[in-house]
Amino acid sequence: MHPLDRYLRRVAFWLPPRHRPDILEELRSVLEDRLEGEAAARDRDLTEPEIERVLQDFGAPAIIVARFVKRRPVISSGLAYFFWRVLTLALVAILFAQFLVFISEARGGLSPEIALEALERTFVAMLLGFACVTISFVLLDRRYGAQEYG
Amino acid sequence: MTEGPAKRGIVEALRQELRRGTLVLAVLSVLRAEANGTTVRERLATGGVEIDEGALYPMLRRLEDQGLLRSEWRTEGARRKRFYALTEAGGETLETLLDEWREQTGALIQLTERKTDASA
After folding, report:
1. Residue B83 forms beta bridges with which residues?
2. What is the mean pLDDT of chain A?
3. How much is the pLDDT for A149?
4. Which residues of chain B neighbour A61 with C-beta distances below 8 Å?
5. CA A124, CA A118: separation in Å to the nearest integer?
6. Is A52 exposed, middle or buried (0-12, 13-18, 19+ CB in 10 A)?
7. For a FRET experiment, which of A14, A30, A37, A45 has its CA 20 to 30 Å from that of A148?
C-alpha cells in the first residue's frame, strides 16, 4: 500500500463518519500536491522513506484529526484544578476508610484472604470514587459552562 | 526568571500564543480574494506569516463551519481542489476584528511608549 494511502487510512480511523469523505479528499489533494512538489524539486520520484518524511512533517494523523474535530473537553480547564483536588481528597478518604475497615476485620486474625478481600474492596471503592467525582464534575461543567481564565 | 531551556520554552509558548491570536485575522484577510489552501499559505508567507499546512486546513474547515468562509471543489489540472472565499458574515467579521486589532495595537504602542518614557 502506498504510504499516502496508509497515512489517510490512519486519519480516516479517527475521523467522525460525517466529515470523513470530504476531509480525506481535501487532505489527499493537498498531500499529493506536496509530494509532487518535493519530487519536482528533486527532479525524480520520491523514495518511500522520503514520502514518509513528508507525511510526518505534515502531522501525525491523530493530531491532524484533533485539529479538524475540535470538541469541548470533558472537564474544562476552569474546573480542572478543583477536579484534581476533590478527586485526591476523595481517594485519600476512601483509602483511609478502607484501611479502618481492614484494621477492624484483621483484629480477629490476619489472613491472606482478608488482605486480598480488603485490596479488592479498596480497588473497587477507588474506581467508584473516581467515577462519581468525574461524573459530578462533567455535569457541573455542562450546567455552569466553566470559562477558561488566564 | 528561570534560565536556559526553561526560559526559552516559556518565551516560545508566549510567542506562539501571541501568533495564534492573529492567525485567524491573517487568514480571513488573504481570503478577501478566493483561493485554495496552497495559495492561502503562499499569500500568508509573502506577508511574513508562517503556518503549518497541518494547522491551516483544519482552520479553514472550522471557519467554514462557523459561516465565515464558503468553499467549493474545482478541478485544476488533474486534481480537484477546494477553493475558499469570505462569506458576507466573514467579511463583516474581518472588519470587526481589524478594528479590534487596530485598537489593541494602538493601546499597546501607547503603553510601551509610556513605559519607555518612564524609564528614560
Report:
1. B36, B72
2. 89
3. 40
4. none
5. 10
6. middle
7. A14
pTM of the model: 0.74
* Interface subset of A 7-36, CB within 8 angstroms of B: 23, 25-27, 29-30, 32-34
Q: How do residues A14-29 score in pLDDT, each as one tens digit?
A: 998 888 898 999 999 9
Chain A residue closest to B52 (CA)?
A: A58
The three three-digit cell numbers of residue B104, written as one number: 489593541
Cα B19 to Cα A64, B15, B49, distances in angstroms: 19, 6, 9
Pairing of strands B69-76, B35-36: unpaired
Q: What residues in A contact B39, CB-CB < 8 Å?
A: none
d(CA B49, CA B41): 9
- Which residues 17-56 in chain B show a CB within 8 A of chain A? 37-38, 52-55
**Distance in angstroms (rounded) separating the CA atoms of residues B13 and A118:** 47
> pLDDT for B8-36, tens place per residue?
889 988 888 888 878 999 999 999 999 99
| Three-state SS annotation for chain B | CCCHHHHHHHHHHHHHHHHHHHHHHHHHHHCCCCEEHHHHHHHHHHCCCCCCHHHHHHHHHHHHHCCCEEEEEEEECCEEEEEEEECHHHHHHHHHHHHHHHHHHHHHHHHHHHHHHHHC
Nearest to B62 among A26, A34, A70 (CB): A70
Which residues in chain B are contacts of A34 at CB distance < 8 A? 53
Cβ pair A67:B80 closer than 8 A: no
Cβ-defined contact of A25 to B52 (cutoff 8 Å): no
Residue type, A17: P
